[in-house]
Amino acid sequence: MANVFVISDHHFGHKSIIDFESRPFGDAEEMTETMIDRWNAVVGSDDKVFHLGDFSFLNKEKTRGIVDRLHGYKTLIMGNHDRGRSRTWWLEAGFDEVSEHPIVYAGFFFLSHEPMYMNKHMPYVNIHGHIHGQKYEGSHYINVSVEHWDYTPVSFDEIRRLVVPNEEQ
């Protein structure tokens, strides 16, 4: 059975993000190669990955070169830095599916780029990116920005353990 992963905010080609977020890379090329290696170390060719936005600052050809190297069936939920390009642009850049809006996964998880409003009475969990190294308090939010996960996609099994720690998997 294929595994499902989530991750966000790679910012491929955005060298300033190294300083903005204190990323441990010497330059954008090292950042790119490390993040591709870490993705492919956990994601298999039959796995599915939801990328929750802000994927690449590069042109379509260079972006496609990265997408093509990444394992798995890749769905992009467009982030604020992705929305300047059309859904078609991202499909042509190699994503298998592209959504301009948040989606509900497994009837319980809201997958979005920016954190969504969630009050404590809502029985859902918002898996999001956008805020990089920051974190929202509470069990309703899980930030999957690369900075929190060692630049590696996180499996839904791990997310489930965070939400319901003692649940039998």
Automatic annotation (TrEMBL):
Protein name, entry field: Phosphoesterase
Taxonomic source organism: Paenibacillus hodogayensis
Taxonomy of the source species: Bacteria, Bacillati, Bacillota, Bacilli, Bacillales
